[in-house]
Write a structure and sequence with these properties.
The structure holds three protein chains of three kinds. Chain A has 24 helices and two strands. By secondary structure, chain A is mostly helical. Chain A has one domain. Chain A has a two-stranded antiparallel sheet with strand order 1-2. The longest helix of chain A has 33 residues. The two termini of chain A are 34 Å apart. The longest helix of chain B has 28 residues. Chain B is mainly α. The mean pLDDT of chain B is 79. Chain C is mainly alpha-helical. Chain C has one domain. In chain C, helix 14 crosses helix 20. Classes of the chains: A mainly alpha, B mainly alpha, C mainly alpha. Chains in contact: A-C, B-C. At the A-C interface, helix 6 and helix 7 of A face helix 17, helix 18 and helix 20 of C.
Amino acid sequence: MLLTFLIFFPLVGVAAIALMPTFGLDKSYAKWLATLTAGIELLCSVPLWIGFDAGATGFQWETKVAWIESFGIEYHIGVDGLSMVLVILTALLSLISIYCSFSGITEREREFYAFLLLLETGMIGAFVSLDLFLFYVFWEVMLVPMYFLIGVWGGEQKLYAAIKFFLYTLFGSVLMLIGILLIYFHYKEASGGLSTFDLVKLMQFPLSAQGDFFLGKSTQWWAFLLLFVGFAIKVPMVPFHTWLPDAHVQAPTAGSVILAGVLLKMGAYAFLRFSLPLLPEASIAWAPFLMTLSLVAIIYGALVAMMQSDMKKLIAYSSVSHMGFVTAGIFALNYEGIAGGTIQMVNHGLSTGALFLIVGLIYERRHTKAIADFGGLSAKMPVYAMLFLIATLSSIGMPGLNGFIGEFTILLGIFQVSKVWAAIAALGIIMGAAYMLWLYQRVMFGPCDKPENQALKDLDLREILTLAPLIVLMFWIGLYPKPLFEKLDTSTRATVEWVRKANEASYGAYTNYKHRTSLQQSHGVAGKEEGSLLAPESAAVSRSDRVSGQVVWSLPREGGDWDRHSASVGGGESR
Amino acid sequence: MEFIKTLFNFPQVHEWLGQAGYPAVYLGALAGAVLALLIAAVPILMSVCLSPSRPSAAKKAAYECGVPPVGTAREKQMVRFYVVAILFVLFDVETAFLFPWAVAYDMLGLFGLIEMGLFLAILIFGYVYAWKKEALDWVY
Amino acid sequence: MTGFNPLDYVNSSDFLSTAPELLLVGVGLLILMLDLFLPAKRRELIVQVTVMGLLLSLAIVWIGWPDSQSEAFSGMLVVDGYSQFIKMVVLLGALLVVFISGRYLRNEGIYVAEFYELLLFSSVGMMVMASGANLLTIYLGLELMSLPLYVLAAFLRANRRSTEAGLKYFLLGGFSSALLLYGISLIYGLTGTTNLMALQHSLASLPVSPPLLVAMVLLVAGFGFKVSAVPFHLWTPDVYMGAPTPVVAFMSVGTKAAAIAAFARLMVVSFGGLQSSVWASMLIVLAVGSMVLGNVVAVVQNNVKRMLAYSAIGHGGYLLVGLIASMKPGSVVGLPDGLTSLLFYLFGYLFANIGAFAVVIYLGREGQHESYEDYSGLAQTRPWLAAVMMIFLLSLTGIPPTIGFVGKFYIFAAAIGSGYTVLALIGLLTSTISLYYYMGLGMYMYMRPPVERHVFYPTRGLTISLIVCAVATVLFGILPQTWVHLAQSGVLQLWH
């Protein structure tokens, strides 16, 4: 119930704002109504953190209601460590982005806050959905308000940026939808006519990783590709990233904060939540490719960021680089990599969110984002300079701040797969330090020679308050990340374990995918023959392994549900 | 007729038609169609070929006798002509339905009577409509 | 012949099961008379009688919802959940169109009883098509549907574009009817029957021969014209541009629903056997052409009515995908999912499309205020109107949580389920293209400064229909189960 409340409570705020004229409220109350709604939302999300049982496997606060019976679609929501953290991050950043818009948004305020709250519903819904259809619905619901936020309240190129954002994401979404449908129909066939979009149930009958579905590749391989395009556009991974700088530069501050802080996480989250559990063999098969793309993103994003003359664009490209770290961590496919990737998702939300806020603050004062228009601000705005410095250091991974924890853990993960890759990723950190510090230097130090900058006011209390929670969290994660790691531990371990088991079942011994791919290459044909000879027995064995892996991953706290289901669909013979 | 029969009785023709999937019973229809075409075409061709042709200005005029035409035949007519013509065609065609009923009246019995009553009622609706809309008035 | 008794062929239950149609014919004749004998200022009564008749007919359809298929008039018509679903869509469409047309007709000076009458007769034709279980009844329904529509398309007598639309629609429509009839006669020549069930038995043993192929092509052409599938779509933009807007709203939903319903019944029931692969390959060409051309050409339009016309071609393509999905390669029996998705899609399309046309009617007179620029800043001057239009556009694009999304999802799910993954891919990609122009209009409404606009006040009917359409679009998008189930059970009755 708590999660349902969290999803739909912002809609109450939307309704209240929409009906304001009916009750004779002036439109200036819209921001307060929105703040109130988002505040209550954040308060109500705190029990998730406190009440979360870090030791329990499976999902917590589950709700499961039949929704569209004809397709077996359920309103199935629940959180594990990963999504719980992201839900709280979403609630926090939503509140901040509403609070930070008080001075920046002066036109069509009611619509603005209504769209922000609608967006919050979509984001939280997507993070807690355990049904693929439900997830897709929320995934799409997010697009519409974001489209309006960019298109109505954006900069000069807003129309172009808005439609580009919408088109890119929808393009990915429709491919993703086909991937989801492939999984759905596979389940239907394998289970003898049962239909479901439920993540937990779908995991019982993984798509075949062998065989020739199309062009010599297996169903799972294709399903992964389709989902990958959808998720990668959202992350964004490198060949699909071109919408991001446009969207970020044109979006209003609140839009940028949400976009960087939450929407980009959606892609990485979806990889962890859906791609790895549902398509474990394909994840391994694709991992080298995705790892390469991630490393390209890290280096390319950093290089392009260095060349930027616009602050927002620079931070946007730094996002590409940082999200490259996240995906690199995930596709290291080991405990450290995935844990680090998750932490880095949170970190990036905090630090990049803060950086966009900081750019927004100076933009409101000077109406320019060009780096060349500034210089020597530290003397005029000391508080601003300090907060900017903390956010910068957090972004470049200074020990003692949150960025370091995430990046270090990710590097640990990548190192186990390949030392060369780890070295390349580490290079990205150095470049990150270069462009961020250079940015800071050009804006903050040097002579304050522009006359317009002479009279700049330092931050007022409201502005400090918008940044304060982010700064506090940066220090907290940087100095004492243990509670966060603890909360994430079980879900991360279960994911890694599940992928490992699935691959053991399919390919025999598994250490990591580097070994496996090289093994396959050396005796490719022999392995194939062996597999076909052993086919019936090995299939039975693999099923039983999968079932035990399943238990680790997703046994609900009440217990019974999984047992009942596996018996009913014929997993019984493996027990 | 025998000639046509033998023409279509070549076994190859049957075979070919059979391959194409046409039932052979259509052959008669085809033969009939060809014959009809010939009967129409041959006299025309004959008259074109055999008759002498010595055109003159008076012969090429639209009418060889009577008053010479003035202007074209395509000129504006009063719209009432169309309305009346349409009404005539409508009611004329509809009443054609009465004939088969009259022939089979004894077999259709009461049921047929009611059906025809309904049919005529609908027609009367149309008639009343045309009347009230002044479609039958020649002069306002 | 002496033993002939007409009552062997007709019985009272036939009239009961065709009560919705008979009622509408009666209402049509009634308002014809009312128009003649009522004084001019009591005109409102005609509209009220029309609405009452449609509601009553809808109620009969709803109350008498069948649990299994039953025949009427010795197998000329059948009544099953499938036909009733289509009838429901047609009647709802007609009802909404009556609601949205009042002010329009008054403004354009065509506020006459004949409009409602022709609308009713056309609806009856659509309902007959939905029920038709014999090629002849289907043809009869088709003509009964089309003839009033030809007149309605030319209803703005003083407007050149409208008369052009009427004439064009009439000529091409007559031509396509002739093609269809020729196809029917070929089928009759090959099998000796026009009854759909009897056809199934005869066709099951018939190899695919040239005359059968020709017949199939002709049938596809005839129905393709009514669904405005590429390459039989050429009339669509001109007719949609010229015809009165309420008529276009009605045509775009009703004609499509009835034509595709009859076509689907013919294909699934009669040609479900060996020929399905031939059908499928023909229809795939049509479907892909419609989806691609309709959506791509709609991108470059700058007139809302014309954009909706081209997008209607695209939606015809999506419907064809549903139809194709009901034929699984190599399988003799059709698949219910394809047809169910088709029915559901029509149901969703009804509200979104008529709603969008209602907004067009709301904002201006015929031929005016129809360009994208005229919608600039609507969100600021008329926030609620812009919001409902946005809902309709999102539904037409297929963005959740609207009914259009569920419809598209279902259609493409059915296509993938039948093995047409690439077709589904093409369809979904073209719906990404459709996002561009639908959201292009959204962009004008929300992101451009407002323009001076003549203020038209809405009638009650217009407001009601906008609210109904918007609420249905969202509500049934979130809770579609009832309608999915209804469509599903209806389709299952097709095979008894």
